[in-house]
Structure formats: structure tokens, C-alpha cells
Amino acid sequence: MIAAWGVRALTALGWLAVLVGVFGVVLRFLDVQNQRLLVLASAAPYLMAAAAVGVLLLGITRHWIGFGVALAVAAVATLSQGPLYVANSSVTASGPELTVMQANIWLGNADADSLIRQIRDNDVDVLTTNELTPEAVDRLVAAGIESTLPFSFLVPGSGGEGTGIWSRYPLTDKVHHSEFVLSALSARVELPDGASTALYAFHPVPPWPSDPSLWSREMDRIKVILDAVPADSGPVIVSGDFNSTRDHVKYRNLVTGRYRDAADQVGAGIQNTYPADRQPFPPMIAIDHIVTSGAQAESVESVVLTGSDHRGLIAKIALGS
């Protein structure tokens, strides 16, 4: 038997856990603009998990009203996260396959040899890079990236400004979207046999420590750009460090309609990519994403980028015909 004071303490803790879970659910479904709330929204899955603790504690104390509330919150949380682990195929893709890798190389500091080994080991066809510096370009070229990915569209810069695309196949229709603080690029990847796909590489500014309204405007601008792509113009692949998780409304606005997160298409779940430099702790949030339209992801996995504070993301994608 639990003493009366113990029952009261467990009940109070149970209700506290329920409130934390409710807070996580609210953060996921509200388009918050406050900087602290945006950062906390990145941790929404962890906050929502507190509802399960509430179910356990309020069940132990037989506080049935609280138990029912906790169960309802836990159910909403599960319904919000569970679909990420269930394949959601939206396109029947019969075209060629393309392996795409997204890599934020942390102010150009990622180890060039390690990155190129990942490219070769995983038969990567297209690489999008964020935080690409001129010095990093030199190191990657010296390490032999052009022997595997000979075509490129690079706008390197100081600090985190630079973005680049390397490709196994020719790139045409190159555009530098100069309205973004951190370089945003697009090009068309020309595959053999006349197939092609539009490719976008984005890196909106983070909502912290930058002004969150700037992040919000850039996320909205990305949506405008993608929505303007004609639906009948063929496959589209979007890759980058979005500084957003699926628990941010601004990101979910991008992956509705004809655009889908590649990890969601295959049910790969939450592929945490940041921060990856806090060993022995694993990355905690998923802010690097690969998105498709008119194509179907076949696999998605995160990989180690030695020397970076991000993990890389690799998706095998079948293009629509």
C-alpha cells in the first residue's frame, strides 16, 4: 500500500506530466512565432511523451479522471507522431532512381575525406551542402569529390552563408535565389535517357538566435517558390537544413499537397540530425530534410559526418515517369 502522502505526491506528479504533454501537443499544432516557443516546439515529441508518464502515475494512484485525461493526451500525441513510422506512398514511380545526400558541414569544418567516403559508399548521385566555405570547396576538390560528382553549382560563403550542389549528372537551369540570407540554389539534374528532375537546396536562417520573424518569412518564401513549380513539369527534389522539425507548422505547410517528406514516404520515423557533436549523446532533433514531388522515396537514413554538428541524410528516390 502507498501512504496517503505518497498517493498525493504521485497524483500531483501525474498531473504535472499531463500538463507537460498538453504543452507539447499545443506547441505542435499552433503556428507559434515566439522565439522560445519555436525552440521548445523542436522538443515537442519529448514533451508529449510526458503524457505516458501521466498515464502510468495516475493509473497507479487510481485517479481515474486524471487517468482518462492523460490517456486522451497520450492518444493525441501518438496520432501526431505515429504516422511518421508508417509508409505513406503517394506516387507510383516508374522512372530512374537517384540517391540524394543532404549535408550541413558546419561552417565548412566537416572532414572532406569522410564526406567523400560516405558519397562513394552510398553511391550518392547528388549532394546538397550547407555552410559551404571557399576553404571547404578546396578541401573537397583536393580529396577527389569531382571524380565521383563532376558537375557542380556552388555559391560558397563565409560562416554559414554558403550552399552547394554536386552531381553525377549535368546541371542546367541554375538559379541562385538571392532573397535568402543563407544561399538558396536550384538547378535541373539531367539524367541519362532524357529524364530530369528539378532540385532545390535550401537553408533558411534558424529561429534562434536570429530574429524568428526572419525564419518565418523565409519558410513562407520557400513555400511560394515550391508552389510556383508547375505540377506538370516533372519530379521535384528539395533538400536542405530547414532549421525546422515536423513539429513546426511552417515546415508541415511545405510537405502538404503534392510535396512529401521522403522519410514520411517510407515510414523512416524521426531521423534526428542535430546536434551531432555532443557525444556520447545522440542527435536530438530532425532539422535536415529531403522532400519530393512526383517521386517516391525508397529508403531514408541518417549518416555520420565526421567533423560536423549535423548528421547527413541520404534518400534513395525513384522518379516519376
In short:
Keywords: Membrane, Transmembrane, Transmembrane helix. This protein is 37% helix and 23% strand. The protein has ten helices and twelve strands.
Shape: elongated
* CATH topology term of the largest domain: Deoxyribonuclease I, Chain A
* Secondary-structure element string: HHHHEHEHHEEEEEHEHEHEEE
The CATH H-level superfamily of the largest domain is: Endonuclease/exonuclease/phosphatase
The value of Rg in angstroms is 21 Å
Structure description:
α1 packs antiparallel against α3, α1 runs parallel beside α4 and α3 packs antiparallel against α4. The chain contains ten helices and twelve strands. The chain is elongated and about 70 Å long. The chain has two domains: 82 residues, no CATH class; 223 residues, Deoxyribonuclease I, Chain A. It has a six-stranded mixed sheet with strand order 3-4-2-1-12-11. It has a six-stranded mixed sheet with strand order 5-6-7-8-10-9. With 321 residues, the chain is α+β, with helices and mostly antiparallel strands. The mean pLDDT is 95. Helix content is 37%, strand content 23%. GO terms for molecular function: catalytic activity. It comes from Rhodococcus wratislaviensis NBRC 100605. Keywords: Membrane, Transmembrane, Transmembrane helix. This is Endonuclease/exonuclease/phosphatase domain-containing protein. InterPro entries: Endo/exonu/phosph_ase_sf (IPR036691), Endo/exonuclease/phosphatase (IPR005135).
